[in-house]
Write a structure and sequence with these properties.
about 270 residues; alpha/beta; globular; about 45% helix; TIM Barrel
C-alpha cells in the first residue's frame, strides 16, 4: 500500500531474524525498538545490528525508537544511527518537554516523532508538538501513561487521548496513531478499541504482531458506505457555491466537504 500510513509494526532490535520478517509483514512502517523491548545487556548488540541493517535502504520505511535521552544509551544510539540511508525517522520515548526535540534535531536531519508517556508530557503536548520543524508527529505511550496516572479503566485515558489529538491538529501535524493493543490474541478487542480510537480522531495504530495489521487497516480505512456518502457530498458541492442540503436533507458546508475529501484521500491508498 501507498499513501497515508495506518500501521506501525514494532519489533525488537536485538532479534534480526524477527526484524527481517517484520519488513515483509505488510506494515506501512516498521519500528525497530532499541528501548523497552531490549534488555540492558543487549542494548549494544541491538544498536549494532540495527545500524548494520540500515546501512542500506529497506523495502518499507523504517523508524527506530531510540532509548530515552536521559538514559546511558541514547547518545550512542544517535551517533550510530543519525545519518544512515535506510532510516526514515527516529521515535523519541518519554519526551516531557520541547527541549528534547530541539536537542535531537540539532544532531540529525531525520524526521522526529515524540512519544508522550507521562502526565507532564500530556500537559506539554502542544509545546512539544511545535518545538521544531523536524517533529512530524506525536503519540501516546499508554502503558507508561497508565502507570503514571494510576488509571485502571481504559476510559480514564480518553482525556489524554483527546488532548494529544487536539495538540497535533493545532500544531499542523498528522493525526496521531493509537498506542499498541498489548494482547495479540484479542483481535476482537483490538477492533473495538480501534473503532473507539477512530471516533476520538486517531488515524492508524502501532502494532506488536503482524496478525494485528489487517485488523487495524480494516478499522481505519473508510467503509464502502462512507466512501459512497463522501462521493455524494463532493458531487453536490461541485454543482453550486456555498452551503446546501443533500437530497436526504442533510446539510453540507465547507467543513463537511473537507471531511469528505479526507475520506476519499484515505480510501485511495488501496
Amino acid at each position: 500500500m501507498t499513501g497515508t500510513p495506518l500501521t506501525w509494526l514494532y519489533v525488537p532490535g536485538d532479534r534480526p531474524p524477527v526484524v527481517a520478517k517484520a519488513l515483509a509483514a505488510g506494515a506501512d512502517v516498521v519500528v525497530i525498538d532499541l528501548e523497552d523491548a531490549v534488555a540492558p545487556a543487549r542494548k549494544e548488540y541491538a544498536r549494532a545490528a540495527t545500524a548494520e541493517l540500515l546501512r542500506t535502504r529497506q523495502p518499507v520505511p523504517v523508524h527506530v525508537r531510540i532509548n530515552a535521552l536521559e538514559s546511558p544509551w541514547a547518545a550512542a544510539d544517535l551517533t550510530a544511527l543519525a545519518t544512515l540511508p535506510g532510516l526514515s525517522g527516529l521515535r523519541l520515548p518519554k519526551v516531557t518537554a520541547p527541549g528534547t526535540i530541539r536537542q535531537v534535531a540539532a544532531v540529525t536531519p531525520l524526521p522526529l516523532y515524540a512519544l508522550l508517556e507521562t502526565a507532564l508530557a500530556v500537559e506539554h503536548a502542544h509545546a512539544i508538538a511545535t518545538a521544531h520543524p523536524a517533529l512530524r508527529g506525536i503519540s501516546l505511550g499508554e502503558a507508561d501513561l497508565r502507570a503514571d496516572l494510576g488509571v485502571r479503566a481504559d476510559a480514564g485515558l480518553d482525556w489524554p487521548r483527546s488532548r494529544v489529538v487536539v495538540a497535533a491538529r493545532a500544531a499542523g501535524l498528522a493525526p496521531p496513531p493509537q498506542s499498541v493493543h498489548p494482547d495479540i490474541r484479542d483481535l476482537d478487542g483490538l477492533a473495538a478499541s480501534c473503532t473507539h480510537g477512530r471516533a476520538l480522531g486517531f488515524l492508524g495504530r502501532a502494532a506488536i504482531h503482524p496478525r494485528q495489521l489487517p485488523v487495524i487497516e480494516r478499522a481505519y480505512l473508510p467503509t464502502p458506505a462512507e466512501i459512497e456518502h463522501a462521493e455524494t457530498i463532493i458531487k453536490a458541492a461541485a454543482t453550486e457555491e456555498g452551503a446546501q442540503a443533500l437530497p436526504d436533507g442533510r446539510f453540507i458546508d465547507a467543513a463537511v466537504v473537507a471531511t469528505a475529501r479526507r475520506i476519499l484521500s484515505l480510501a485511495s491508498r488501496n
